[in-house]
Amino acid sequence: MVSDQQFADIVETRARRPDVIAEFARSRKRREEFDDGRGLFLVTADDPARANLQIGAYPVALGDRKRLLDRLTSVLDAPEVDGLIATPDIVGDLLLLGALDDKLVVGSMNRSGLAGSTWEVDDRFTAYDPSAITASNLDGGKMTLRLDWKDPGTNDALLACASAIGALGRKQIPALVEPLPVFRDAGRARVSNDPDGLIRAISVAGGLGAMSDHTWLKVPMVRDVALVLGATSMPVLVGGGDPGVDRDDAIARWRDALALPQARGVLAGRSLLFPADGDVDRAVSAVAEALGR
Fold first, then answer.
1. Is 158 buried (19+), middle (13-18) or exposed (0-12) by CB count in 10 A?
2. pLDDT in tens, 169-179
């Protein structure tokens, strides 16, 4: 539980001693391996920076920073959870709370494609960049690549992602790429879960960058997951699924995906931090059970 005093201390440190955050980042105790072979379990916390704050009927539920930090520290305290994906603001808060030792920390890089904006597909790099990921002692960099064949902003995103993948690869840092086929629906960019579209997106993402040695992919949980993952030989983290809605179904779907050689772990975000049934511990145990832990 993040107390009022702890939250006030974060604000005080940011105001009067901001260099402490960089010091904590440099001295953070890191894991020896990115992938230890047990199947990764990462929690995502980069939605707020894209103005994607809705949970259920509450449009700005993720906008309560203290509440979000409380959930994150609780989840990260679980030994089954390997780490998180987040933007610099959240990483900084969690460093000050001492929540990131021995955890994987992947920096979220391009967050400018704000939810509902006309430029959503033109997702430029406004958070971490490769040099900041190195300086911040992080374990990887994550980028989103939305592909819309009718939006020229896609090409700018392709170029930016290719550059970042190459820069991270040259430093032997994992680049986690999330390729998503999108279409416009009443002016909003909507993700298509059509297997054919995902296969095309995965194929494009796999060819980005001057080198692919350290490229990982994030792929949503969809029907025909074996067909979709068959499009790549790269390691994949599977995202999606709400164990608070139907725990047994979520576990079964994760297990089916994790039986594939490309699937190296699970990513869970708001559905884990704020599950439909309100039981965070139960949600964490569901993912752990799917991973065989």
1. middle
2. 999 999 999 99
| Cβ-contact 290, 64 below 8 angstroms | no
The domain 4-290 belongs to what CATH superfamily? Answer: Aldolase class I (3.20.20.70)
Report residue 190's pLDDT band, with 50, 70 and 90 as the boundaries: confident
* Extents of the domains making up the chain: 4-290
Q: Write down the pLDDT at residue 223.
A: 85
Q: Which of 75, 84, 68 shows the shortest CA–CA distance to 281?
A: 75
Place of tokens 């460093």: 95
Residue 57 scores a pLDDT above 90: no
Strand partners, 182: 191
The upper half-sphere exposure of residue 278, i.e. CA atoms within 13 Å in the direction of its Cβ, equals 0
| Alpha helix segments (H runs only) across the chain | 4-16, 19-27, 65-76, 88-96, 130-135, 153-170, 195-206, 225-229, 247-258, 270-273, 280-290
